[in-house]
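Practice problem. Given the sequence and the SMILES for calcium ion, write out the predicted structure.
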Amino acid sequence: MLTLITHYSPVSLRKAGQASLITNNKGMALVLTLLVLALITALVVEFSYAVYTNTNALYNWKTSQRLSFVAKSGVQLASKTILEEVMQHPSYTYPGSLNIPIESPFEDFKGTVLLRIEDENSKFNINSIVYSNGALNDEAYHSFVRLLRALGIESGIADRIVDWIDPDKEPRLSDSEKASKNLYLDSIDELLLIPGIDNTIYEKIATYVTIYGDGLININGAEIPVLMSLSDSINKNMAERIVAYRKISPFQSGAYIQSVAGITYTIYNDFGVRITAKGTHFRIISTVTEEGIKKVIESVLVISGTSTTVKYWREM
Ligand SMILES: [Ca+2]
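Answer key:
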């Protein structure tokens, strides 16, 4: 019995406890080592990922900067092209829009450059429907209604735009003064803010309207619906004849439109004061793409004599 008691003496128990403590400590050390190792591995992976992401972001940024320079050069080239055209024949500008694809403009550049030039004077100036004193410009309003009709859009949209722009608060339609701006449009996109103009209507109108220019329409560039907006006497067939005529011989002045079969002096007299043969405001869209990265610069240039002024500039 005694022996047994000795075997289980407090000393022996302490020894046994120490042995198990040592084993436990070793186990803890192993767990800690494993934890530290796991942490280091996670940190290394995280670090490599961060370095990879940063390098990639830096590479994309560098490419984006490079493309931005190429796009800017594109705008310069387009403006030079327009100026040369204007110098060559000062009385008119033709055509209304032009796409210029440029193949390998620089060494080491493997992307594509597409320049698009649009004569803004070939479009209908939507702000022209309200005079600067706030009164309705009847002729422009009726032109715009004709444009809407040619595009298959109901004429009430013209009234909604008038109320959006004009300074008064008297609605032309029951709800057309609700939240109206009562100022001119600053961009075409603003049409989407006008109640009653949804994406479908906007998409139909957008390419034919502008906020630039003096309201005169360049008959050398106007597309069929815009030509039809000039007068009730210009139907689709006549508008097509105008387009066919200018392809062979661009109009030297507005009056030259009478050379087109069917356009009598009486018909011309109806809209003669609202047309021109020359554009002054040009939209340039320079799109550069390389290795999946795209840079677009959109700008509007005003040409006066031989000088150009940038009216609008947006980088995307
Ligand atoms: Ca108003």
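Check your answer against the key. The two ends are 94 Å apart (CA to CA).
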